[in-house]
Amino acid sequence: MRPFIGILMTHDDIEYVIPLTSPKDKHKNMKNTMDFHKINGGKWGAINFNNMFPVLHDPSVYKIIRPLKDENTYSNLLINQISWLNKTENREMVLKKAEKLYEAYVNDTLQDKIKKRCCDFKKLEKHYKEYITLTLSQK
């Protein structure tokens, strides 16, 4: 299984993962927008703010990335992405951009073309809370 990389953001006590993606040819012609941001000009992939989703806080799912012989290129990409995100100004920009998109979505102030690309954050939160309630009731 390939590791999944994302950035954690907390909103109203719910943790969201903001997913990263590997570099793709289509990114070359794309610009940084409210819901998309290239990492190192796209050389190291991009951040898909529109696809962020709530997750349970579970430290057991967080792993340390080590280069693998058979996936050295991919491991290096992940290390580069993490290094970029560990820079304070980049991390702050990502979290501000995610919060801004979230607020615009739930307050219905997004342009339609951006809103259509986004996950329905309120619907995801509703199902997340239902899952939590169900899980707690089974314990």
UniProtKB/TrEMBL annotation:
It holds the Pfam family ToxN_toxin. GO terms for molecular function: RNA binding; RNA endonuclease activity. InterPro entries: ToxN/AbiQ_toxin, Type_III_TA_endoRNase. It comes from Clostridium innocuum. This is Type III toxin-antitoxin system ToxN/AbiQ family toxin.
